[in-house]
Structures are given as C-alpha cells and as structure tokens.
Amino acid sequence: MKKIVLILGVALGVLACNKTETNSKEFKTAYIDTAEIIEKYEKFKDEDAKFNVKSEELGRPLEAKVRAFQAEAQSFRQNAQAKGPQWAQQKGAELQQREQQLGIEQNALIQQLQQEGAVLKDSLISEVKKFIKDYGKKKGYDYIYGTGDAATILYAKDGYDITKDVLKELNDKYNASKGDEKAATKEEAKK
C-alpha cells in the first residue's frame, strides 16, 4: 500500500514538472538586477553627484553656525570659573538655547534633503521602469523580472494583468459585507 502511494506521488510529481516545463516555454522572460542598474546607470551617478553638491551647499551655512557655536562653547568653558557662577549660569542657558536651535535647523535641513532625495529617486526609478517596459515590448518579452534590492515584475503584457478582476471581486465582496452590516444594523434597530 505504501509503495502504491509513493509511486502515485512520484508519478504526479513528474507530470506536474512536465506540465510546468511546457508552460514556461510559452513565455519569453528575462530578469534585470535592479541593484546593478542603480549602481551602474550613468544618470543615477550624475544625479547623485549633483545632489551631493547641493547637499554640501545647503549645509555650509549651518556648518559655519556650528563651528561658531563650538568656539563660543569652548570660550565659555575657559571663562566660566573666572567670571563667576551667575555669569556661567546665564551664559550656559544662552548656549543651551542656541544648541537647541542649531539642532532644529539641522533636523529641518536633513528632512528637506531626504524629501528632495526621495523625489529624485522616485522620478529616476519611474523613468527606468518606463524604459524597461518599452524595452520589453520592443523585444517581445512576456515578463521581465527584477532581482536585487527590489525584486518585482518590471514588465508584463497587459493580457496577464488580473488586477482589475481581483479588485472587482474584492470590492464586490466588501460591498456585500457592508450591505450585510447595514441589514444587521436595521434589524437591531427594529428590535
């Protein structure tokens, strides 16, 4: 009995493998290492260099303020004992307030740069995806897979897109459950 089950399992496995092989031969597929594209695409490199220059330019005024603050803090440490505790307390509070303000400025600059960097990266990735899609159509690919940091399908023929069908069923199911909830609420209200 165990031998029959084992033989049947092996036979089904072989048939399943054969069926998969014939289906995979029907499609023209390829893959792209997205991490390598990001690393080696010249436009990515150029835009990254421009962004780094812009970051440095925007950061220079803040760096100058930080250096001035550090010099003033060093002077404070040297003069604190000589000028007395009252002066040290007042000057220390002023320095602390300036340090907090510099921290706020630094955080704002970092946030601005992160937002600008994200927008730039998104636009470049969209551009690359569009290129890959056009390339796939031109070369007759059914699927182009992505590997690397973002492993996704980068291109597929429109006929293989079942998004609308799945979305319709999800929405129908959701709307039906909403209708059931409304009916249940009306039933409870009648009681």
TrEMBL record:
Gene3D superfamilies: Skp domain
Pfam families named in the record: OmpH (PF03938)
Keyword line: Signal
Annotated SUPFAM superfamilies: OmpH-like
Keyword Signal: yes
PROSITE patterns: PROKAR_LIPOPROTEIN
UniProt similarity note: Belongs to the Skp family.
Record protein name field: OmpH family outer membrane protein
Organism name: Flavobacterium fragile
